[in-house]
Write a sequence for this structure.
């Protein structure tokens, strides 16, 4: 049930009446209810469960105007099936289309996995908070993902690698259960070739062809030397993963308000209206999905 009272009424106790009402959330809301008619212009099979979709807004002027910041998501509508929140996985500088990396999970995502080039879809957005990359300029940055977490991490990776001189040391750390589940493996060499980017990939279970390290992603942090007060971290993955990673980053001395994670909750409207995604009185669609780790551990039931 939605914990907030109807917003059109002032339901505060008389003793609270001298406190100003916090309308910040409402003020921050952008009225983006418009559905952009779009089409799938490319489908790339990444693994057994994930595909990368190139999605192009059909109207030229709307496509030109559409922009997003790394960490934001769209609501993707598959006509006849429904709408799902999906992180934008492409470079914010790419104006032609957006890329969405989508795992088969249920009704909508399975329908999408059957779709081909030319299929019509709708997108609303972009929604939500972003990773504060401008605050990280001049600092070192750790970009860490587990499993499907590389999907939301890919947009900040593009931003950082396209603006490499704005950051000090850049480390990309990625881990999955086994080599067959690695996403975007064709891109690691490309990122490695960028001046002074340290990329390390680890799997929990090797197969015969795997030559890299084996273990949990936290093991990769043993090979990283950082200046804790000059470093920011962006960590994307399942909550159990970012709990352990952020715990280890804390032990390395990185303050919790310098670590950023993306929280996933079931969403419906994406814009603070339906009360589907709240944790306490925090809406993950408008106050998040990107939060600093200090806020996350203070959110009841967030992880
Ligand atoms: C901000 C945000 C960004 C996301 N980005 C991506 C992305 O980049 N790529 C991607 O593949 N998925 C992403 N997701 C998850 C995606 O939205 C769900 O997998 C999708 O909504 C499932 O819809 P469905 O109709 O296919 O499955 P359903 O039939 O609705 O559900 C199938 C199963 O998936 C579970 N599920 C549904 N929604 C979620 C959710 N939000 N989180 C975890 N489990 C869920 C259900 O509990 C159920 O077990 C994101 C979610 C959020 C909130
Ligand atoms: S998804 Fe509707 S309020 Fe967040």
């Amino acid at each position: 049930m939605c914990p907030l009272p109807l917003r059109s009424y002032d339901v505060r106790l008389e003793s609270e009446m001298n406190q100003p009402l916090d309308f910040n959330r409402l003020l921050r809301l952008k009225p983006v209810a418009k559905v952009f008619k779009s089409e799938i212009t490319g489908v790339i099979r990444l693994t057994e469960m994930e595909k990368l979709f190139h999605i192009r807004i059909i109207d030229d002027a709307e496509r030109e105007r559409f922009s997003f910041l790394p960490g934001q998501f769209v609501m993707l509508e598959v006509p006849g099936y429904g709408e799902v929140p999906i992180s934008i996985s492409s470079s914010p500088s790419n104006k032609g289309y957006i890329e969405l990396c989508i795992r088969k999970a249920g009704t909508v995502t399975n329908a999408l996995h059957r779709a081909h080039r030319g299929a019509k879809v709708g997108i609303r957005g972009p929604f939500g908070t972003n990773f504060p990359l401008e605050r990280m300029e001049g600092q070192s940055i750790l970009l860490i993902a587990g499993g499907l977490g590389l999907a939301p991490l890919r947009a900040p990776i593009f931003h950082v690698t396209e603006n490499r001189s704005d950051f000090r040391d850049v480390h990309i750390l990625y881990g999955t259960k086994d080599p067959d589940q690695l996403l975007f493996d064709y891109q690691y060499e490309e990122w490695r070739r960028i001046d002074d980017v340290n990329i390390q990939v680890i799997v929990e279970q090797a197969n015969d062809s795997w030559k890299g390290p084996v273990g949990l992603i936290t093991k990769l942090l043993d090979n990283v030397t950082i200046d804790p007060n000059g470093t920011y971290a962006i960590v994307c993955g399942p909550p159990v993963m970012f709990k352990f990673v952020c715990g280890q980053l804390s032990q390395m001395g990185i303050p919790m308000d310098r670590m950023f994670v993306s929280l996933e909750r079931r969403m419906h409207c994406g814009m603070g209206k339906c009360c589907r995604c709240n944790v306490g009185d925090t809406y993950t669609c408008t106050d998040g999905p990107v939060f600093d780790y200090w806020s996350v551990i203070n959110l009841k039931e967030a992880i």
Remarks:
- The pocket of flavin-adenine dinucleotide (ligand 1) is lined by residues 73, 82, 84-87, 101-103, 105-109, 148, 151-152, 264-267, 289 (CB under 6 Å).
- The two ends are 19 Å apart (CA to CA).
